[in-house]
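Note to self: the last two entries modelled the partners one at a time, which told us nothing about the interface. This time every component goes in together.
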Amino acid sequence: MANIAFIGLGNMGGPMAINLAKAGHQVCVFDLSADAVAHVVAAGASTKASAIACVQGAQFVISMLPAGKHVDAVYLAENTGLINHIEAGCLVIDSSTIDAATSCKVAKALATKDINFVDAPVSGGVGGAVAGTLSFMVGGSTEEFAQAEPILMAMGKNIFHAGVHGAGQIAKVCNNMLLSVLMVGTSEALQLGLANGLDPKVLSNIMSKSSGSNWTLDGYNPCPGVMDNVPASNDYQGGFMVDLMAKDLGLAMETSLASQSSTPMGALARSLYAMHAASGNGSKDFSSIFKLFNKK
Amino acid sequence: MANIAFIGLGNMGGPMAINLAKAGHQVCVFDLSADAVAHVVAAGASTKASAIACVQGAQFVISMLPAGKHVDAVYLAENTGLINHIEAGCLVIDSSTIDAATSCKVAKALATKDINFVDAPVSGGVGGAVAGTLSFMVGGSTEEFAQAEPILMAMGKNIFHAGVHGAGQIAKVCNNMLLSVLMVGTSEALQLGLANGLDPKVLSNIMSKSSGSNWTLDGYNPCPGVMDNVPASNDYQGGFMVDLMAKDLGLAMETSLASQSSTPMGALARSLYAMHAASGNGSKDFSSIFKLFNKK
Amino acid sequence: MANIAFIGLGNMGGPMAINLAKAGHQVCVFDLSADAVAHVVAAGASTKASAIACVQGAQFVISMLPAGKHVDAVYLAENTGLINHIEAGCLVIDSSTIDAATSCKVAKALATKDINFVDAPVSGGVGGAVAGTLSFMVGGSTEEFAQAEPILMAMGKNIFHAGVHGAGQIAKVCNNMLLSVLMVGTSEALQLGLANGLDPKVLSNIMSKSSGSNWTLDGYNPCPGVMDNVPASNDYQGGFMVDLMAKDLGLAMETSLASQSSTPMGALARSLYAMHAASGNGSKDFSSIFKLFNKK
Amino acid sequence: MANIAFIGLGNMGGPMAINLAKAGHQVCVFDLSADAVAHVVAAGASTKASAIACVQGAQFVISMLPAGKHVDAVYLAENTGLINHIEAGCLVIDSSTIDAATSCKVAKALATKDINFVDAPVSGGVGGAVAGTLSFMVGGSTEEFAQAEPILMAMGKNIFHAGVHGAGQIAKVCNNMLLSVLMVGTSEALQLGLANGLDPKVLSNIMSKSSGSNWTLDGYNPCPGVMDNVPASNDYQGGFMVDLMAKDLGLAMETSLASQSSTPMGALARSLYAMHAASGNGSKDFSSIFKLFNKK
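The predicted structure of the combined assembly is written out below.
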């Protein structure tokens, strides 16, 4: 069992830390929110007065933070950066979804102190975090991946080695850009059927068993009433928020710009999600994009 | 066993007719191409001098024709239309992929002579036609569907009842519009990963097991070398031609226009496939759209 | 002065007929609405009991009808078509905005009776129709154009010879497709400026005097408050209705499909206008698409 | 006459500096390329051994650099930044096209030393730089704008005050995003006309005098042969390079992402230009996007 510091106990980080503790690891957690800390401590973790105190002596440091600037600051800030307090040989696992450039920058800086690093963003949402069934997309060397894998297994089900540092982030934005296209394309197709008299359950069944089959259509249908237990049948509550999809599409577009790639579908999805968020749907599930194609 | 007339023996119609004959039906075939007729007759069908001669006394008439105008002409042309020669009680199964309006017009006209009708376009390509594993999307009444089903089973695996007359065509264009979006979106995502250093096999595996999973990524990967036995690994030969996808997207757009639906992704896919066809790729497999996003 | 029959007295046709009468022509008008007829007769035209009666002895027949099927029926319907009543040598001027294929079909049929034809759709809206400042885009032979021009001058200011039969319609859909792109592009650019703190008047002035200059930005600004006397500053009342732009974009897309052209921007504009119409803005001016990009 | 330091003598900066010298100003220039310096010195400027030496005692410092990172480094680099050498009261005019955030950062830093600043990106291309007819879009206070205007008049014709610091950059990206949409939309419309038999000169003339009128159609026509003296009639040589338009669209997209704006047309134009550049057209004029819509 390992000695683990966990920084960032939000909707995702909290249950992830709890699963580590449940698996028998020694988990010392830190967050600016005392409530968030208390909740995880109640489930078996310990805490200390600062992130710096937490990482001292840890074999693993895991972080789950909102954006690249937070990751940069937590590890590399001039005086307060954890880089000066993490021990050589320790593995830093950053599970935040951020730009690959920041992941690489942090990896490179930590390497100068012989600290290992993987970027390991997740998919699977809050449900997956609680159930311990997340997917991890990991960027780092073969050795770093091998070091990370047993720890990640306590929080997830599929642990993918995407490639070198930053590759985990790239895999995540590619997947989520594709996911957004699947959702918009599925919504358009279902609405086109509806507008021409088809029953959406019948059409969904046909396409799911044909070449239109995809993750959103088959198990996360955006048309209300087609499936039980999906956000569409619960007024688009829960699930994966439009604002978070918009954030991930922002990262995908930055990646596309930086590599001068052509991503017309991804770019269209980005603008449609921005439009949808701007008209007040930011905290709805991302399948609510279906409504954008409603006929009055 | 039934007495079946089969009109239209192209790349799809030929093997479909052969499968009916192999199943033990009496199949009388007609096509303007003597070679096409000879090929099917050699496999067990019979032929007659005209389509009119074929349909006389038939319990089922099946047609597989290129476009709505051909279907309209074959059944309804003023003097030569089969409507005047098909017997009451017979079921016409039109498996052509055409506009729903023509399907409905033909159904309505045939009904005045007590001839039943279903539109039953297929998916599955030439491979599925030969193997007898096509999917049929059927539009017609419950009685007509029941009448059609046992015959269709000799040619396909999945027989879907999409709804009333025309619904088969609508389901087909919805599915194929969605399929085109899946293919373009998957191509963009894989190219974005490639441009940022990821191995396309690794990325495909990750996304297939994550929320990016879809029919094109999982079994028909557009990136050369990721999968064996797909057109992408055979210089985009075989499979489903760009020109045919462009035709289906044309039908999808006409359906979208007629119902004043908003289908931005489908419309973008249509223009990208038109662009791709115009630059000389019309007879390549539709997964070759991947090349549109190549970096030099 | 000429002897003119005028069929179709809607928002456009009515003032056009009045301008012909004011110019001194003998104008005999017909419409299914008695009110519409009475209004034009009060301004100096005459009427008869039927369209057939109106066209007998006329040197020119002008029609202004909603769609291709109406034009087809008015001229070519089996028994009631005007083709059987218009005199040889007469020029038919169809100013309806319809598909080019129908224009060509009518032209060809009329030619068998030695009746001349031009398609002559207009731009300039109701305001231009009343003021007699419409633009006409004319399709027909050089002789037909020469025959049409003096009559059109009584209703418009710019009379363009676009090419052979149907070319007037093609020019119209090309222009209006481009117009829709200008309006959406201008709306996006102004909203992007607004969201980043710029004054829309200042930004409009800069772009109008730079390479962003275009008809919509310079004289029909979609941002409320930038210009007086445009629909945007009058709650998007008046002007060119979203539903009419959607109709014209439908014709543009049919033209694009028929010629297998790639028109991604036009197709995107079509879907955005369909989306905008579906959310209840069909009778607003087409510059109201600006609102689609509003930040909450 | 003013004492001016000019940093960055590329295709644009060189002729701009020469125009300042010709207008009678004392211009001290610096560039890493000795050839570039020699060329401008031959036209009347002076030079010194370093940028730092140039700015000492200058009343104005003008920079024309490739990207935000260069501007940031030139002014703010820890030891070598010009901020430590420019005199209080001096006005820095940065004419580089960069992100607004960097402009604001530099402005704020310089203000701590009582150095004034405007961002003043240009439009008009190399031709405008040579002829002294550039447009400047200026971001800064009213006082800073007043200080800048007389100097800018020696290099340009239209000097626009866009707003506060950064507003010049925002105006530039809004304008150029719109410009790209005009160019793509015009190309599509002309190609649609061509594919349907229209003469592009005739169609261009009609649309230019109608509501399709825009800067690209009217004076920079992308169809070869329609206009003399434009890149389209010279194999798309000269003019405004595809790679530069792609760079500006990258800045526009970053601006759109940062403000969570929806810019579907701009985003589509960005992907089409990236696609066009990737297939080997990066150094062609941006009107060559017309070729993307060619029918074989």
